UniProtKB/TrEMBL annotation:
PANTHER family (UniProt xref): RUVB-RELATED REPTIN AND PONTIN
Domain of life: Eukaryota
Name the UniProt record assigns to this protein: RuvB-like helicase
Family: Belongs to the RuvB family.
Function: Proposed core component of the chromatin remodeling Ino80 complex which is involved in transcriptional regulation, DNA replication and probably DNA repair.
Gene3D superfamilies: 1.10.8.60, P-loop containing nucleotide triphosphate hydrolases, RuvB-like helicase, domain II
Catalytic activity, reaction form: ATP + H2O = ADP + phosphate + H(+)
Length: 456
C-alpha cells in the first residue's frame, strides 16, 4: 500500500451561508452561551450537540447515529458544521446531501460507501529517517540540457539545513527540487525530507522570523533540536478514501481506445470492492502492529429523507460493521412516506429499525429577537451595514417566513441600497426585496390560489 503519496481528498464544503459559525459556543460546563462562536439561541440542541462531541472524542460514539430534526431554517446544518469545528481538523468530517446518491453513473450504495470511507480516519505513526531543519540556502544547480537544445535543466539542488545543534549541506536529486517547489519552500522555513522517499514536508516558518510582517496565516515553528540527520516519528492523518484513491489503478487495458479514454478523463480511477478489502487488510495489520490508529470521524447526511429504503438498509448494515464512522442525519420532514416504498409512512421518512438506534436532537423555531441577532451576525460577516429599523423589519418577516429566507434577503437588500447610492441597508430596501422575492410559503399559497393559471 502506498502511503507516501497519499493526498487528502477531503470534499470542499458549501458553507458560504455558514461562514460565521466557529463552534458550538458552550462554556466549560457544557452550557450554551446565548450568543457565542457565531451561534445564537437554540441552547438545548447546542448542549446536546456538545455531549455528542464529547462522546466522539472519548470514542464512545462509533457506529452510532444522531438525527437533527426540526423545521427549515432552524440551524440544523449550522449545528452540524459547528460539531465539525469542535472536533477539529484531525477528525474527518464528510458532509453530503441525501440526493447525492442519485447519479446516473454510480450506484447509490457506491456513493454511500465512498462517503463512509471519507469519514473514517487513520492516524499513521512511523519512525522515519529524515533530514530536518531550517532552510538556510536553497540553490538549484543548472547544466546545459543533455538532450541538446537551448534550455538548461536542474542537475541537482543544494540545500542547507540548520538545527539547534548544527548545520548540514545536502546535494539533492532534481525530483526533490520539484517537491520543494510544490510545498513552496523558501529559506527560513522549517522542513523535513524523508530519506527513503525524498518526500518533502514544510512544517512552517522558523520562529526566528516571527517578527517579520508576513501573512497572518503563517504558522511559526521552533528551530528543530537534535541533528539534521535523524530518526523522527512522523504522523500522518489520512482517510480510508484517501488510501482507496492513492491505490486505485487507472481504468482500462493497453489498447488505443482505452488509452484515449484515459487521456480524456485523466483522473478517472476505479475503486473496487476487492481493492477496499485489500486496504482494510493492510490497515488492520498496521493497527495490530501499533503503527496506525483508527479515528472514526463524522459522516453528515443532510436532507436524509431523500434517501430511499435501499440506501437506508445499506446504511444500517454499514453502521453495524467494525469500522464505522459516526453518522449525523438532518431532516425537516415530519411523518412521511419512506422513499422507494409504496406507502410505508414513518417519522422523518426513516425506517423504524434505523430510527430506533438514533439519538434525536430537536431544533425549534427562533424568537424574533434571535432572528435579528443572527441576521446582524450575517450582515457583519458579509461586510454589510444595516439600520436598526431594517433589522427589525427582517426580524418580523423572519417570524412569518423562515430564518433562511431573511438571511438570503440580505444580499439583494444590499444591492438595492447600492442602487440608491447608500452603503447602509434601510427598511425600504428590505420592503422592496421582500415584495420582489417570495418565500416558499407565500409562493405555495399563490400556487394553490391560482391553480388553474399554471401548467401542470
Ligand atoms: N442558532 C444560529 N445561530 C447563528 N446562525 C444560525 C443559527 N441557526 C441558523 N443559522 C444560520 O441561518 C441560516 C439557515 O440555517 P440552516 O442551518 O441552513 O437551517 P436548516 O439546516 O435547519 O434548514 C444559515 O445561514 C445558518 O448559518
Ligand atoms: Mg439544512
Amino acid at each position: 500500500m502506498k502511503i507516501e503519496e497519499v493526498k487528502s481528498t477531503a470534499k470542499t464544503q458549501r458553507v458560504s451561508a455558514h461562514t460565521h459559525i466557529k463552534g458550538l459556543g458552550l462554556d466549560e460546563n457544557g452550557a450554551a452561551i446565548q450568543a457565542a462562536a457565531g451561534l445564537v439561541g437554540q441552547e438545548m440542541a447546542r448542549e446536546a450537540a456538545g455531549i455528542v462531541v464529547d462522546m466522539i472524542k472519548s470514542k464512545k460514539m462509533a457506529g452510532r447515529a444522531v438525527l437533527l430534526a426540526g423545521p427549515p431554517g432552524t440551524g440544523k446544518t449550522a449545528i452540524a458544521l459547528a460539531i465539525a469545528q469542535e472536533l477539529g481538523n484531525k477528525v474527518p468530517f464528510c458532509p453530503m446531501v441525501g440526493s447525492e446518491v442519485y447519479s446516473s453513473e454510480i450506484k447509490k450504495t457506491e456513493v454511500l460507501m465512498e462517503n463512509f470511507r471519507r469519514a473514517i480516519g487513520l492516524r499513521i505513526k512511523e519512525t522515519k529517517e529524515v533530514y530536518e531543519g531550517e532552510v538556510t540556502e536553497l540553490t538549484p544547480i543548472e547544466t546545459e540540457n543533455p538532450m541538446g537544445g537551448y534550455g538548461k535543466t536542474v542537475s541537482h539542488v543544494v540545500i542547507g539545513l540548520k538545527t539547534a545543534k548544527g548545520t548540514k549541506q545536502l546535494k539533492l536529486d532534481p525530483s526533490i527540487y520539484e517537491s520543494l517547489q510544490k510545498e513552496k519552500v523558501e529559506t527560513g522555513d522549517v522542513i523535513y525530507i524523508e530519506a527513503n522517499s525524498g518526500a518533502v514536508k514544510r512544517q512552517g516558518r522558523s520562529d526566528n522570523f516571527a517578527t517579520e510582517f508576513d501573512l497572518e496565516a503563517e504558522e511559526y515553528v521552533p528551530l528543530p533540536k537534535g541533528d539534521v540527520h535523524k530518526k523522527k516519528e512522523v504522523i500522518q492523518d489520512v482517510t480510508l478514501h484517501d488510501l482507496d484513491v492513492a491505490n486505485a489503478k487507472p481504468q482500462g487495458g493497453q489498447d488505443i481506445m482505452s488509452m484515449m479514454g484515459q487521456l480524456m478523463k485523466p483522473k478517472k480511477t476505479e475503486i473496487t470492492d476487492k481493492l477496499r478489502k485489500e486496504i482494510n487488510k493492510v490497515v488492520n495489520k498496521y493497527i495490530d502492529q501499533g503503527i496506525a490508529e483508527l479515528v472514526p470521524g463524522v459522516l453528515f447526511i443532510d436532507e436524509v429523507h431523500m434517501l430511499d429504503i435501499e440506501t437506508f438498509t445499506y446504511l444500517h448494515r454499514a453502521l453495524e460493521s467494525a469500522i464505522a464512522p459516526i453518522v449525523i442525519f438532518a431532516t425537516n420532514r415530519g411523518r412521511c412516506v419512506i422513499r422507494g416504498t409504496e406507502d410505508i409512512i414513518s417519522p422523518h421518512g426513516i425506517p423504524l429499525d434505523l430510527l430506533d438506534r438514533l439519538l434525536i436532537i430537536r431544533t425549534l423555531p427562533y424568537f424574533r429577537s434571535e432572528i435579528e441577532q443572527i441576521v446582524k451576525l450575517r450582515a457583519t460577516t458579509e461586510g454589510l451595514q444595516i439600520e436598526d429599523e431594517a433589522l427589525s423589519a427582517l426580524g418580523e418577516l423572519g417570524t412569518k417566513t423562515t430564518l433562511r429566507y431573511v438571511v438570503q434577503l440580505l444580499t439583494p437588500a444590499a444591492l438595492t441600497a447600492k442602487v440608491n447610492e447608500r452603503t447602509i441597508i434601510k427598511k425600504e430596501d428590505v420592503e422592496e426585496v421582500g415584495s420582489l422575492f417570495l418565500d416558499a410559503k407565500s409562493s405555495a399559497k399563490i400556487l394553490t390560489q391560482n391553480k388553474d393559471k399554471f401548467m401542470k
